[in-house]
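Throughout our pipeline, every protein is held as a single compact record rather than as scattered files. The record that follows is passed on verbatim for readers who wish to inspect the format:
___
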Amino acid sequence: MIYSSAERAAIALDYLQFSPARREELLSRIPPQELFSKKEEARRVLDAREFAALEKWGEERTERLLADYARRGVVCVTRYGKDYPPALLALPDPPLVLYCEGDLSLLSLPGFAITGSRRTLPQIGKLTEEYARGISLKYAVVSCSSAGGDSAALRGALERRRAICVLAEGSLVAGPACNAPLFARLRKEGLLLSEFPPPFHAPVYRFSARNRIVAALSEAVLVVSAGEQSGTFFTANAARALGKPVYAFPYSPGIASGVGCNALLKDYAKCTDKLVDIAAAFGINLTETGSETLSEREEKALELLGQRPMHAAELAELLGEKPQELSALLTLLEMKGRVVSLGGNRYSLVR
């Protein structure tokens, strides 16, 4: 990767980890490519410790830093480069650098955020995967790194290699250990990105700031699960502040992981209990599957319906699932023209 002088300076400055406010003040006074030459101007902005760090920095250290990133497979996307997503500039504090591992071309696709809590119910996780598969026909699905709803969204979108995971810390320290296989797959088939350099632990107060990136990269947000004080509220509220629609799954009373979703629905979110709700609103043609093969679940469902028409509850029992888990799957198969609704929640194979 070849970086311009402005990009190289921005990457070096970001590594020094000055406060965002101090960094932006510095860049407002000095063009990035002149940061390390106009020392006296920088001295007027920085405190003694910060200026000492800037003064010690040299081109040789920049070269070593860039070589280390390249060795790790990290590509730096700066505000001064062509690959930087314009949508992030709508933020009051857009990241100076995005540290990316994986398919950088996903940043050029429109995004759709899907997020949920760690305590997402298994059946909701499966439903989330189905939504992500459908939405990824048109969008890159954007989510965070937590187990539960976020991971389900990423798994679903990875089937079409359209998953973007925004990390709260540098990629070397990101996420729970149980998600290590998912991160490895994202590096090969999707995209990991963070506003923090790979080895950096983000300060706790910056964790919620990650969600502003998720919201800014996306045209809309779907909240699939949320407790009473879930971090998903930060993503939903950030999207609302940017004038973007927010959707949420409805929950029955008494389900702790759905309390936040119901609260959002009471306040400003739109309800969705079928994938077609979002597909119709955002022009997603669920029949555009190209040459892609059907999932194992889809194949099994079609095999059973090929024997005779049946009620969704009976089909769910034969598949070893709960009826609500099949909602998105049957909708997707119906939109693909593979099954037809007979009314009364009964379905038949299209002959």
